Amino acid sequence: MTRKYLLSFLLLLFPLLAMAHGVSDADQEILNNGDLLSYIYVGAKHMVTGYDHLLFLAGVIFYLSGFKDIVKFITVFTIGHSITLIGATYLGIKADEHLIDAVIALSVLYKGFENLGGFEKYFKVKSPNLLFMVFSFGLIHGFGLSTRLQSFDIGNSQFLSKIISFNVGVELGQILALIPVVLIITQWKPKKSYKAFYKAANFYLVIAGIGLFIYQMYGYLHGH
Q1: What is d(CA 186, CA 101) in angstroms, rounded to the nearest whole number?
Q2: Residue pair 79/142 in contact by the 8 Å Cβ criterion
Q3: Closest CA to 146 of 103, 100, 107, 105
């Protein structure tokens, strides 16, 4: 039974790579023919399929004990990625998408490693302040989102409004995607199988982070 639930959870966290982060012609067409609502829609779609962002946030939720903590940390993450998404896009600051996604992959690895007590076990030190790290990684994740948005042709008309609308969509998509994750984790916590589930899921985050990092670095090295 535990394996069955774990598999369902992992499927929620790790959509197919081919579906994630796509900057597709269909999305560009939606933006070309739509108004600001189309930017909200594409932003939400991007976040719902943003497997790396959701894996990191799932790792954060694992570490927290109550709903108030979850809201606080997700809010801090949201502030962080909103700053760089809006700021970097408005100023036209770009980075190679493979490199920024490789760093985001490391954030997934970091969170799984921390949840498993890696800092105490291997380095004999306390893990860094979580709120600070979530904000810092939020800035990095927002830069990745900005890089994706700048891959679209959004023109010059209502430029800032389009960026903000995309960001609003990202927030809505984030909430939508995290609802089942929060429900599964919080409902599972009282069960005896939770400890095994916790270890297995966070070990998966470590493996996923390593795999995504290799995947992105391969794309970077073979794209230049």
Answers
A1: 29
A2: no
A3: 100
Q: Residue type for 199, please?
A: K
Task: With a cut of 50, say whether residue 171 has pLDDT above it.
Answer: yes
Please tell me the predicted confidence (pLDDT) of residue 66.
Answer: 84
Q: Which domain holds residue 114?
A: 25-221
Q: Count structural domains, the chain.
A: 1
Question: Which distant-in-sequence residues (6+ apart) come within 8 Å of 71 by Cβ?
Answer: none
User: 181 and 12 in contact (C-beta within 8 Å)?
Assistant: yes
Do 47 and 177 meet the contact criterion of CB atoms below 8 Å apart?
A: yes
Q: How far apart are CA 159 and CA 1, in angstroms?
A: 50
Residue 8 lies in a domain: no
In a domain? residue 3? no
Q: Could you tell me if 63 and 128 are in contact, meaning their C-beta atoms sit under 8 angstroms apart?
A: no
Please write the tens of the pLDDT for every residue from 45-61: 999 988 899 999 999 99
In a domain, 65, yes or no: yes
Instruction: Please report which confidence band the pLDDT of residue 16 belongs to, taking 50, 70 and 90 as the band edges.
Output: very low
% of the chain residues with pLDDT over 90: 81
pTM of the prediction? 0.89
DSSP 18: G
Alpha carbons within 13 angstroms on the beta-carbon side of residue 20 total 18
Residue range 92-120: mean pLDDT, rounded: 96
- How much is the pLDDT for 25? 84
Which residues lie below 8 Å from residue 82, measured CB to CB, with a gap of 6+?
Answer: 142, 167, 171
Q: Is residue 77 part of a domain?
A: yes
